[in-house]
Description:
Blueprint: H1 2-10, E1 26-35, E2 38-52, E3 59-66, E4 69-76, E5 82-89, E6 91-92, E7 112-113, H2 120-128, H3 133-142
Amino acid sequence: xxxxxxxxxxxxxxxxxTPEFRVGDTVDVMCRIIEGDKExxxxxxxxxxxxxxxGLNEKFVVRRLVGKEGVExxxxxxxxxxxxxxxxxxxxxxxxxxxxxxxxxxxxxxxRELRGQRKSGEAAEEAAxxxxxxxxxxxGAAS
Length: 143
């Protein structure tokens, strides 16, 4: 009962569309910064190392290197200060929290890239498409 009441109270503050990203992705977080009477948008780019919470309290942690020092910043997903989250690179990870990256240096902190993500419809169309006979003949001649 009380959870339904909380959901109703939080609903007007939730963003209509939330960006799709996961832990391990390299993202650009567009932050709204207000300085006096001026307002600007600044990008904070890095690797998402954690996501937690749900509803209005959902947050994520982004880590990047500035100079040789690691900087982590926590963002509320539904905050009005977070304008947009753009995924630059998909990471292939097997953990929900990537806190172990804090101890890694250099190439050891790189994550594998998740490649070949297709929609199920595209993969089915490609499998059903016949292979032209001319390309099979030239492939055999080259061997």
